[in-house]
Amino acid sequence: MPMKQRCTALLVLLALCAMPALAAPKVPDPSAPGLSGSQRLQALLDRVRLEQQKLKTLEARFVQHQESAMLAAPEDSTGVFSYAAPDRVRWEYQQPSPITVVIQGDRMTTWYRDLRRADLVKVGRYSNQVLKYLGASGNMQTLVDYFTVKLSMPAKKGDAYRLELVPRYARISKRLKSMTIWVDPEIFFPTRMQYVEADGDTTDYEFRDLKKNAPIPADRFVLKIPKDVQTRTIDLGEGKEGKEPKSRP
Q1: What is the mean predicted confidence (pLDDT) over 204-223?
Q2: 29-54: per-residue pLDDT in tens?
Q3: Of 187 and 26, which is predicted with more confidence?
């Protein structure tokens, strides 16, 4: 998967965790009788923001499903996702290949354990751009500002709310064709997200066994890469392709 597409996927999910919250005088209920379609959408956005206000840490198992012209066949990956507010993330891919991804602020480290290689990525302005588009630099209302949003209500008890988003502006649609977010009706938190790139490549993330606000050791977000692992630096913020791989000092 190309580096910028991988960054988009990771930063989208970071954005969903990091969206600032709205202080609401009462608990919004998107299923309340008598609401119009736009009122239900707004109530759901407000309720998700209210729940995210309480979020300090999050851990979950994840399944990532990818379909791409670069893949001979669809590929599934599994692992563990960890998040600590405001901007620390760890993806521990366990199957089919052991890969560790750690994000802290505008820096992302990807360690391909079986290849003994690591990429140190400065996402810089690219990170700010993605987060702005997807709402993390403002609030979840930004989704409505930058995307046309269609809300599908749960068909039966236990079904998720589904938000289908299509970019309003060309600068977004150059990278992202569409995105779908599933929101759990009990915890009002996104538990699945699918996004389709402009070229048709599709990535789907599903989160299971969510643990909210459980203690996470600080060293979970620190990578101790062995000295013999080959590393390279890639600067997406400045639009550079990065330096040639070199051995760690």
Answers
A1: 93
A2: 999 999 999 999 999 999 988 888 88
A3: 187
C-alpha distances out from residue 189 to 62, 84, 185, 246, Å: 15, 16, 8, 41
How many other C-beta atoms can be found within 10 angstroms of the C-beta atom of residue 38? 11
State the pTM of this model: 0.78
Distance CA 82, CA 65 (A): 19
How big is the CA angle at 160 (ends 7 and 128), to the nearest 5 degrees?
25
